[in-house]
Amino acid sequence: MFNIMVVEDDFHTRRLMCAVLERYGYHPIPALDGQDALEQLDKKHVDLIILDIMMPRMDGYEFTKILRDGGSTLPILMVTAKEAPSDKHKGFIIGTDDYMTKPVDEEEMILRIAALLRRSRIVSERKLAVGSTVLYYDSLTVRTDGESSGAAGGIELPQKEFLLLFKLLSYPNKIFTRRKLMDEIWDMDSESDERTVDVHISRLRDRFRDNPDFEIITVRGLGYKAVYLA
Fold first, then answer.
1. Contact between residue 141 and residue 151 where contact means Cβ atoms under 8 Å apart
2. Is residue 73 classed as helix, strand or coil in its secondary structure?
3. Predicted structure pTM score
């Protein structure tokens, strides 16, 4: 069971969020503000933090900065009534992983939590499993035989192809524009144009044409997305 800390100074909101988490099978750990959360983190294992911004003693921005400055990669979902773009930008710059504004849609919050936990596991294990397909980040290797004990026996891909596939499969059903993929995978100063993305996508489709676990879809006028088939 995942432990999720709810850092919220409003009693009723904190209790409601904890009840929702319990209903979906998570173990909530309530905290009154950033200071209380820091003290509890020293004693308890936490997998993810749901964090309000405006709180007494220590607000969400300061709390996030302290965690990130200390090297923590713990996933943080900011949930706040502050909805101005500048507030969101500040949260992401400081180090939050996702951002929601109040009032919160319960189902959307649970979906975002699941996605953050999944990405966190990918980062810590440095591998990604999609059905019987396993991607090993350190060796740029893909195994398609269901064996996840190591990269030996897999297909080693060129770096850009692997990074492109890893990015798409890490965010199933999320549409990435060609420009976004260029910016994240190719150097900003690269002389390559967006046609390069199309070429690499074509190569990946050829390599994994018969793969039963995923498919790379072209979204006309926008870009590409990966879809899980299993």
1. yes
2. coil
3. 0.60
